[in-house]
TrEMBL record:
PANTHER family: LACI-RELATED TRANSCRIPTIONAL REPRESSOR, RIBOSE OPERON REPRESSOR. It holds the Pfam family Peripla_BP_3. Gene3D superfamilies: 3.40.50.2300, lambda repressor-like DNA-binding domains. This is LacI family transcriptional regulator. It comes from Streptococcus moroccensis. Residues 2-55 form the HTH lacI-type domain. InterPro entries: HTH_LacI, LacI/GalR-like_sensor, Lambda_DNA-bd_dom_sf, Peripla_BP_I. It comes from the Bacteria.
Length: 324
């Protein structure tokens, strides 16, 4: 097996220079290129265990997800893992199942130096455990103690959904979503939607279902019977849109002929499958890359933007009318 000395000899540099390249230290671009070419030619693989002991790092990042069953989380994890691999890190996927005790176990792993940092999608009460000294990036949630957060522009998602439904002829609008136990950035979707409807003086309603859902179908049916004139709906995510469609169909209403629906997330059942519904697309890949870059900057004790909001877009699916 090739050694670091072999790489240094082939590149015409010192061993220290090779070490700086491997550890992302400061070297000239031309020198870095020579070293990387030598590494590739010799198929050199650094001893990450020894490297970690020397640098007091594990080169392991924990990614905490509420579930691995949801396509949004799967796509996000795919991009996070790819980007971490490019930066020399391994990714440990942690399925919390929405349980705070599991999330706290993963935080303790970091405190015990078993991982170097954490990227988390969490909707639990772990605020007291997330400190500014902890390399922790939160997705879709902004903690009160200045921890790093990354999210799509949820307020703008609500605005765009409302304006899109109105442009397609909807006069009576509604927002339907869950009501989590703790505040998240996702709640801004309803605020943006309702504010936009009110600014256009459009009749609008909303239904916030407490989580975990109990008799969701019954609550939806009651809501639609109370407001039979609704013609446009924005849901908190694409899966909720599917639940809404099922109830409307049972009540004899057609989508999009009678009621038009826009979800949020932009999920697909597979990369080569069409959209599930018309949707506000979150920039999942950009959110993943921003999360990784922010975490690595934190771990390297570099300056980092603590509040990252990324732009959204509308994607047409089968649950809205085509406007000619």
């Amino acid at each position: 097996m090739a050694t670091m000395k072999d790489v240094a000899h082939l590149a015409g540099v010192g061993v220290g220079t090779v070490s700086r390249v491997i550890n992302n230290g400061q070297v000239k671009a031309t020198t870095r290129q020579k070293v990387e070419e030598a590494i590739a030619q010799l198929n050199y693989e650094p001893d990450n265990y020894a490297r970690g002991l020397k640098l007091q790092k594990t080169f392991m990042v924990a990614l905490i997800l509420p579930t691995v069953w949801h396509p949004f989380y799967g796509e996000f994890a795919y991009h996070v893992e790819n980007e971490l691999a490019k930066r020399g890190y391994k990714c440990m996927i942690c399925n919390s199942d929405g349980r705070a005790d599991r999330e706290l176990e993963y935080i303790k792993m970091m405190q015990q130096n078993k991982v170097d940092g954490i990227i988390a999608l969490t909707y639990s009460d772990i605020d007291p455990y997330v400190t500014s000294s902890l390399p922790f990036v939160s997705v879709d949630r902004h903690f009160s103690n200045e921890a790093i957060s990354v999210s799509a522009d949820n307020m703008d998602a609500g605005r765009l959904a409302a304006e899109t439904l109105m442009s397609k002829g909807c006069d009576v609008l509604a927002y339907i979503g869950g009501q989590p136990r703790f505040p998240t950035e996702i709640g801004k979707r309803q605020i943006g939607f309702t504010d936009t409807c009110n600014s256009y003086q459009k009749e609008n309603y909303y239904l916030l279902v407490p989580e975990p859902f109990v008799d969701l179908e019954g609550q939806l049916e009651t809501f639609f019977r109370q407001h039979p004139d609704i013609t446009g709906i924005f849901t908190i995510n694409d899966f909720m849109a599917l639940d809404v469609i099922a109830v409307l169909n049972q009540m004899g209403k057609k989508v999009p002929e009678d009621v038009q629906i826009i979800g949020c997330d932009g999920i697909r059942m597979a990369s080569d499958r069409p959209l599930v519904v018309s949707t506000i697309r979150q920039p999942i890949e950009e959110m993943a890359l921003t999360s990784v870059n922010a975490l690595i900057s934190l771990m390297n004790k570099e300056e980092v933007n603590r509040y990252n909001v990324l732009p959204i877009s509308y994607l047409e699916g089968s649950t809205t009318k085509k406007v000619v």
